[in-house]
């Protein structure tokens, strides 16, 4: 199984704004005072277009789909939370915490991929769990080490343990389960998505180990990464707040590997961390300030990786 892919899906926003329904447990979201919604969306579109251009510029195969105005989906720019695509042709659809995010799941996006020659064999649909108030938000909640058959999950209101284990059984992953915290107004609160504090590359892992308060759990997670011979690059909670955990390794032209992140994530890294990362792949960063502030997500959340077979 490959850990990285050359193909990704991205959703261009049409009505991007801070989503009041996700702000209840995504403590990274901010209100941008004094900006009209249309201005926020226009800025987000500019950041999105520049980001896509950079990815395509190095040979990443980006499928861009426009969001539509009929649905009120302010977070549609983060498709990795509702869908994941797998090498055996499986597509997984996930239950979402915020009601207005559930409309992001669109069959026509799957049709678009099939038109491009990707083969979808089977759809694993976990969305009925929403009726029971149970959520698992795609590769935001679960980090897949596809090559080593492990899935990492920081439990939260958006990542249910039982459903995560069910996913692991269905897709044949060994579950690595823990809790990760951030300090909010002096209190330790659960981090809403695993991919905010951790990134898995082919040969490296970026992780804020300090966010795993339980020492045994922290050791267990780090031992799993070491076992798979990944170089561990530690980041701080302050760097997590700058989205340094929200990176993704992708492949460009000639299978060259890139570590994709936002400009704020890149700027928060130390020269030593940058050197460690550059031992593995070239860094590609793009300014996503508006998207990060209003959406509380960053570069990794914007890219749904496509591992489907091609005809």
From TrEMBL:
Alphabetized Pfam families for the sequence: DDAH_eukar
Stored Gene3D superfamilies: L-arginine/glycine Amidinotransferase, Chain A (3.75.10.10)
This protein's name: Amidinotransferase
Lineage, opening ranks: Bacteria, Pseudomonadati, Bacteroidota, Flavobacteriia, Flavobacteriales
